[in-house]
Specification:
mainly alpha
Length: 170
């Protein structure tokens, strides 16, 4: 999973930008690892490779979308790598769990299509749970103080303002 994620990310980055980067390869490895996690123990080696390859490509484009289109500063690519990767892994588990594809096998009487419905219900339930809980935690945290620093602090740099250390020498 993680090796195929790294390879897929590197190839996608190579085709898109003309060369792969070490940071991209490592991010692809993390994407493959995060994506195979929901499927681990349920899919076989070929399913893991397919899931990792899918992770490398889809998470690469999800990262580009978050950063370039939506202009969200997600410095560690948490959502496009772990969030999107987890969704992909959860969904693809419903396919690659089939014994005909090298997995543990579907529950008795279950089809791949039926299992995909179960996986989608789990995905939606997780998204709702995380969304509601995040909203509540942000509201509770906001009571204690502002969640955003002032313009002056952001301009000076949060490394200096909050930690009294310089993260970059510019």
């Amino acid at each position: 999973g993680s090796a195929s994620g790294a390879i897929a990310w590197a190839l996608t980055e190579w085709m898109r930008h003309g060369k792969p980067s070490v940071l991209g390869i490592v991010t692809g490895m993390v994407a493959g690892l995060g994506t195979i996690t929901p499927a681990s123990g349920f899919v076989g080696p070929m399913g893991a490779i397919a899931i990792g390859l899918t992770a490398g490509v889809v998470c690469f484009y999800a990262t580009q979308l978050v950063k370039q289109r939506f202009k969200i500063d997600d410095s560690l690519d948490v959502f496009p790598v772990h969030g999107v990767g987890g969704l992909i892994g959860t969904f693809l588990t419903g396919i690659f769990v089939a014994s005909g594809l090298g997995g543990m096998g579907l529950p008795e009487g279950q089809t791949i299509a039926g299992q995909l419905v179960v996986q989608l219900i789990g995905i939606v339930a997780t998204l709702v749970y995380c969304g509601v809980l995040t909203y509540v935690l942000l509201k509770v945290s906001g009571i204690a103080g502002s969640l955003r620093m002032g313009v002056e602090e952001e301009t000076e740099g949060l490394d200096i303002v909050l930690h009294d250390e310089r993260g970059y020498d510019l």
